[in-house]
## 1
Amino acid sequence: MFFASDNWAGAHPNIVAGLSAAAGGFATAYGDSALDEAVYQRFSEIFEREVAVFFVATGTAANSLSLTTFNKPGGISFAHRESHVIEDECGAPEYFSGGSRLHAVDGPLGKIDPPNLDRAIGRFASEVVHWGRPMAVSITQSTEVGTVYGLDDIDAISAIAKQHSVPLHMDGARFANALAALDTTPAEMTWKRGVDVLSFGGTKNGCWCAEAIVLFDLDRAKELAFLRKRAAQLLSKSRFIAAQFEAYFKDGLWLDTARHANAMAARLAAAIEDSATAKLAWLPQANEVFAVIEKTEADRLQAAGAAFYDWHRPHGFDGHIGEDELLYRFVTSFATTTEEVDRFGQLIAG
Ligand SMILES: Cc1ncc(COP(=O)(O)O)c(C=O)c1O
Ligand SMILES: C[C@@H](O)[C@H](N)C(=O)O
């Protein structure tokens, strides 16, 4: 019963097969192989316009280099207070940009509140040299607490970014999960809503190690190529990232795995809601479930083999957490089975 993170899941058999099929022979290195080029083209087809694609090894690299693409001295990027770029990247975005800063913006359950964003950017709009100046806005889709920005939500955030003449970045470490949840298209959820650069994650959704920066602002592509190399993120055997994405997109595998993970989260949430010892903190929208559970009960579940973590109370969660209770996060993946979820359901039912 592995619900600690979708980072714990392995690689989907189709991805493994794709990687193995590409393993033999020789191919041009550093992103210039025929397979790399074919996958770049596949990304353009999927996003219904020409895009520039840059494979990197981690989501942190994708986020950091995406923001650095729009770097400026004194630059400030605006992200949700509990965003990965602020809370879980150890200063990488600041480091790779040579000192740009991240400004935390509040909003309910992981989503930036547009008026808060407008006020936050507005404080720096006069570009007083002592204070710095707006550089970018970053949203996470799906968010760090398993919620999803609706298309109207993205429109509202994007309008403010454009009003302040700053680009919009999307941390799409769980892009496929959000896409499946909204049942929309990659184009509708990104550039058609004003997203300028996307961290496109494949690792958590069945790939072995496959992340890509998808740049809609093609004028910046040359700059990003140098930024990636300087960050030691240009993989010599890039074709092995390409091979994973080729298999990932083939026959819609990426959306099937995301839909499955989301369905498993919904099943897990129902089991938690049916129990007498735990309660959902909020409804899951993608593949992350949050519940308030008595610590002794959580200890029992973990001792019985369920892997999951406690989580800090996110901004905007006004539910009650008792003295002997904690908030816990459960993450499902392509590898989560109904048997696993049902076994957990029986366990939590007592
Ligand atoms: C929301 C989010 N963004 C980005 C990442 C990428 O992080 P990593 O550098 O660990 O691949 C993660 C990791 O799980 C994440 O949860
Ligand atoms: C760092 C940790 O939060 C990781 N991004 C995860 O979602 O599991």
## 2
Amino acid sequence: MAAGSSSSVPSDPLLRDELDIVIPTARNLDFLEAWRPFFQPYHLIIVQDGDSKNTISVPGGFDYELYDRNDIDRILGPRAARISFKDSACRCFGYLVSKKKYIFTVDDDCFVAKDPSGKQINALEQHIRNLLTPSTPFFFNTLYDPYRLGADFVRGYPFSLREGSPTAVSHGLWLNVPDYDAPTQLVKPNERNTRYVDAVLTVPKGAFFPMSGMNLAFNRELIGQAMYFGLTDDSQPNVRYDDMWAAWCVKVICDHMGFGVKTGLPYIWNSKARTPLVNLRKEHEGIYWQEDIVRFFQSVTLSKTSVTVQECYIELSQQVREKLGKVDAYFIKLADAMMTWIEAWNELNPSEN
Ligand SMILES: O=c1ccn([C@@H]2O[C@H](COP(=O)(O)OP(=O)(O)O[C@H]3O[C@@H](CO)[C@H](O)[C@H]3O)[C@@H](O)[C@H]2O)c(=O)[nH]1
Ligand SMILES: [Mn+2]
């Protein structure tokens, strides 16, 4: 593991000592220059994917720890096989080794976006605001985020629900290249997202959503144990569904635990997408299976005796084995990997389980 220290730190930013920024990279970290004004005060956890012989240089002035595949193998031993290799899902190793309450994860080809006024968007600050204010999963507020300055609960909103729920996840969006699947990319290769929607919504209880890993923040203490970006590298059939698997596990557990999931602001600028045909080869099993997988999650009920996220996740892995194991043997491996993730979490975070 490599480490570095910051040189000059601006004034006291929100959650500076309670949040880690996790970056998976198989390329380079030049994009950090664009984020420097917003990221420099924070600690970075860089998960270097691919060949450990490559050297990934971190621009000066950032406080970071960097883990390559040798580090992952050394720290996790045989369990390392459950952390995807040569796939962005490796980022979840950063969630395991972090000791902070909050995580923000971002891709190395995502840059600072501008709002309609032309002002640079501090995505990290917006995520923090989303996570520090409650969610409204049980009753939809038609003026969207009621905790936002200049908004509130509208007439008819039950006062008994206005305290809201703890927010576990803040899912941000992307200007420029939208996170489309390969078939959509193929038919709309030049479509760009130019629409800036100035809203943050809570995903209602019982509803699922596609969670993209490229601009995502979460309360690691609340929901980190369910944020396994599972078993999706090229040696597996279900590639590019790492973040979606985590999304659906997290959402069914948040619904059970009474936590909220928000989506909307902040936007980042997604600079590029992989070639659609490469993505199609990676995604095709997942696209086929997702109809069964989503129906499975929609049918999941967790027992009353599962009162912690870890207990929910273990129960969920058992249901994955029993019900999705019939779809394909891959899901039995994935159910095992979910258990290995929990074992690794408990070993690395003995005080957090
Ligand atoms: O083998 C790899 C490939 C990439 N990375 C790092 O992961 C992120 C995302 O990589 P990339 O931008 O090439 O891929 P996208 O298709 O844009 O990724 C999005 O699709 C989702 C499905 O997997 C994923 O959650 C999103 O991030 C970059 O930082 C790469 O450097 C890697 O570590 N290993
Ligand atoms: Mn990308």
